Amino acid sequence: MPGARRGDVIPCKAEITVAVTAPATSLSRLPVTWSGAIPIPALPQVRSVDVKWDGLSAERASGVIIVRLANPNSFPISISRLWYSLTVGGVPVLEASAASTGSFGPDGGENTVELPVAIVPRNLEAAVAGIFAGGRADYSIEGSLELNTPFGIMDVPLAR
Prior knowledge:
mainly beta, 9 strands
């Protein structure tokens, strides 16, 4: 559809005719009409990020990643589940997940999401050593969002 972009809701209408011939009757035509809307969801936009560490040791660093998210969609959403992981130089560095992170109004509605996070320093050391050895910082982020929308639940993959 021309002009449609992520975050929009596209109105639509379907009209079909079902033809049925039953024994001992003539052909009957049944018109069926459906009107509705189809969403084209966009990922929430990250506005700011902060990290607060509450436990640091040689074996584990734990804390909270505080993210300010904005909803670019023209419909409200809530995040019922969020999971992601970060790999640096092929080494898993951190993984975080959260359930029921709040609601976001349409057209830029913002909310703050707190993601508990734990890092194993040994893995971070291996990733940094790989960066120095190779001279590059290859990374990947993957995960998924489960969005609740007026159109139902949508599973949205995250990858970068």
